[in-house]
Design brief:
Helices cover 49% and strands 18% of the residues. With 483 residues, the chain is an alpha+beta fold. α1 packs antiparallel against α3, α5 packs parallel to α8 and α7 packs antiparallel against α8.
Amino acid sequence: MRRRLASVRARATLGTTLVVAVALLAAGTAVLLSLWTNLSDQAGTQAERTAREVAAELAAGQPYRALSLDDDDRPVQVVTEDGTLVAVSEHVERISGTGTDTVRPATPPAAAAPSGDGEGAGDGDGDSDADDDDSAGAAGLRPGEIAEDPSYSDGSATVDGESADYRFAAVEVETEDRGTLTVYAGAPLSTERTAVRTALTVMLIGFPLVLAVVAGVTWLMTRRALRPVEGIRREMAAITASADLARRVPEPDSHDEVARLARTTNETLAALEAAVERQRRFVADASHELRSPIASLRTQLEVGAAHPELLDVPGAVEDTVRLQNLAADLLLLARLDAGERPAEARVDLAALAREEAAGRVRVSVDAEPADVSGSRGQLRRVLANLLDNAQRHAREAVTVTVRREGGRAVVAVADDGDGVPEADRERVFERFVRLDAARSRDDGGAGLGLAIARDVAERHGGTLTVRGTPEGGALFELRLPAV
C-alpha cells in the first residue's frame, strides 16, 4: 500500500510539474516573442525617424554631400528609382537587407548637386521638365512630398569594422530635380537582442527553480493529503485481522474526498456489521426453529419403535410437513439474500388472487385486471403468506382487493381482527418475529411469512406495508410496477 501511495505522490508530482513546465514554456515563449516584437518595433520607429529626417532634407533640395549622414550608430543609404546608390553614411563598409548592397555612391556628390549648386544641373529645357513630371507621376508623389507608409526589413551592416544586425526603414521622397529617391535608415538591434538574451537567461535560471518548488510543494501536499488514507488503510487492516466489525476508521476533520471516503467506509462497515449480526440471528433462530419439529419427530419415532401401538402418525406427518415448510422458507430466504433476480414473466394479480383464495373460508375477492412482471411462484407465495396471516387474525372475514393506481398494481389484504399496533408495523416484517401468542409455533409459522413477502416485493421493485382499517383490523398493501 505504501508503494501505491508513493506512486500516487510521484504521479501527482510528475503530472503537476509537467503541466507547470508546459505552461511556463508557453508563457516564456509568448513573453520573448512579445518582447522581441515590441523592441523591434521600437528600432523600426527609430530607423523611420532617421529616414524621414534625411527625406525631409532631400525634399528641401539639400545636396547629397550636405545630408545628415554622420550618425555612426544608424547607417543611411539614399537610392534612386533605378536602384543607384547616390549617398551613404561615411563609415559604412558593408550593408545588406536594403535596396542595394553597394556602399560607394555611383556618382561623386559634386556631380549630383542641384542647378543652383552645380550638382545635377540640367539644361532647363522642356524635356527635363517633362522627365520630372513623369517621375513624379510614377512615384505617385508630388515634388517635395514624403511617402506616408514606410517599409521595413531586417539586415546587417559593418560600420567602422564592427558588424551588427539592423532594422531598416525605407521612406520614399519625391524631389524637384532628382526624381523619386528612397532613403534607407537602420537602427541597431543589439539592444533588443541583449534584452531578449537577458530575459531568456532569467527564464532558463528561474524556470527550473520554479519547477523544483512546484514539485516539492506538490510532493509535500500530496503526502499530507494522503496521510488520512494511510490511517484508513491501517485501520481496515486491523479490522480484517481482528474480524471486529464494531471498529471504525478515523474520519478527518475536513469536507474533502478523503473525509467522504472515510464516512462511506464507516457506513459500509456499519452495514456489514448489521448484515453479519442479522445473519447470526437468522442462523440462531433457524436452528432453534428446526430443533423443535426435529425433536418432536424423533421422539414420536422412538416411541413408535418401542411401542408401535403408541405411534402418533398424524402428529409425525404434521411435524414433517412443518419441517418441510420451514426448510422451504429458509431456502427461499437464502436465495433472496443471495440476490436472486425474479423471472421476467407476465403475471395477472387478479387471477392469481382468485386462485389463491379458492378453497379458503371467509375470504372474498374483488379484483380488476392488473398485470405485473416477475416470478409467478414468488408472487403466489406472497399472496399465500398474506392470506395465511389474515386468516390467522381475522374474526369473521378476509377481503382481497386488486386494482390499478396509475402505474402501480395494488393488492390489499384486510382482516377484521385486532390489527397491528402502530409501533410494531415495521417489526412484523422482521424474521422470526411473533407479536403475540396467536403467532406461536402451534397456531402459526416460524415468523418468516411476512419477512419473505416483503423481500419478494422489494425484489420485484415494489413495496409491502401495513396499516389499520376503519373497522380496526390490519390492512396489508402490496404495490408493484404495472405493465
